[in-house]
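Protocol step 4 of 5: obtain the predicted structure for the target chain.
Materials: sequence only (see below). No template structures provided, no constraints applied. The aim of this step is simply to have a reference model before the mutagenesis design in step 5. Sequence pasted as it appears in the construct record:
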Amino acid sequence: MMAEPRKLVSSMLALTVFGALLFVPPLVLVFNQPISHFGIPQIVIYLFTVWLLLIVGTALLSRSLPPGDPDKSATPEDD
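Step 4 output (structure tokens):
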């Protein structure tokens, strides 16, 4: 069952806003600690994990969107 296109577009907007909030400096600096996991600084793991999750989320949501109709997106011609 496919979700409504309006809900999917709203989900894409929410993912964009949430993703932007995950990259604001106050939150990113929380992970800027002198801690390494397998020799990789914690902040690098955080940034690349968030980036990867945003890519996966965008791919999943964009697959659910119906293909756009190019005739509807064009401006109507005056007759």
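Step 4 remarks: The mean pLDDT is 83. The CA atoms of residues 5 and 65 lie 6 Å apart.
Proceed to step 5.
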